[in-house]
Amino acid sequence: SRAFFEAAGDLLNRLRASRKPVALAYLDCDHFKQVNDEQGHDAGDEVIRQIGGVLRGNVRSTDLFARLGGDEFAVLMPDITSQNAGERMEDLRLAIQTQMSTGGWPVTVSVGVVWYETSPDPAREMVRSADDLMYEAKAAGRNNVTLRVLSHT
User: Fold this and answer.
1) How far is CA 107 from CA 1, 34, 104, 145, in A?
2) Does residue 153 register a pLDDT over 90?
3) Across residues 112-127, what is the average pLDDT?
4) 25 φ, ψ to 5°?
5) Alpha helical stretches, state H, 19-58
6) Which of 33, 67, 93, 119 lies in the 20 to 30 Å Cα band around 41?
């Protein structure tokens, strides 16, 4: 996660200077513990690898993504509209659901997305805000995307 935050800080600085919009998505796996408990940690590791592969195949070359720990991932999307960010994360959610179903795993993802017209500082604040929204997605029944347009001063 340290490498993600360093790269995110650099990217946010460039976006702030050019006054470009940015979104950050925070993804948390639903029912991941069930896989580890019932199928073992090797199966859990494979779930993480599969999700990483879905992310790699579904992000733009300009996006920054990383596993932040455990079963949590972040995607930083520069120069994107709020609508496009929400649509892309919904597509990603569905792609992960399909991949997990194909593998026979009960795993889905809950996603919190924050969008800013101009880049805030620091990256950790964006992650914290997106993490809060991810918990709202979980509270709303899991396996969904919650997006909020935020401003900063």
Assistant:
1) 22, 9, 9, 15
2) no
3) 91
4) -110, 140
5) 32-39, 41-58
6) 93
Q: Is the pLDDT of residue 60 over 90?
A: yes
Options 28, 30, 63, 71, the catalytic residue: 71
Instruction: Report residue 64 CA to chain centroid gap.
Output: 10
In sequence order, what are the beta bridge partners of 110?
Answer: 28
Q: Is 132 a catalytic residue?
A: no
Q: What is the dihedral of CA 35, 140, 150, 73, to 10 degrees?
A: 0
> Amino acid letter at 98?
T
* 3-class secondary-structure state, position 144: coil
Residue 120's pLDDT is 83
What is the per-residue DSSP string for 96-143? Answer: HHHHHHHHT---EEEEEEEEESS--S-HHHHHHHHHHHHHHHHHTTSS
pLDDT at 152: 62
d(CA 45, CA 134): 22
Write the DSSP symbol of residue 152: -
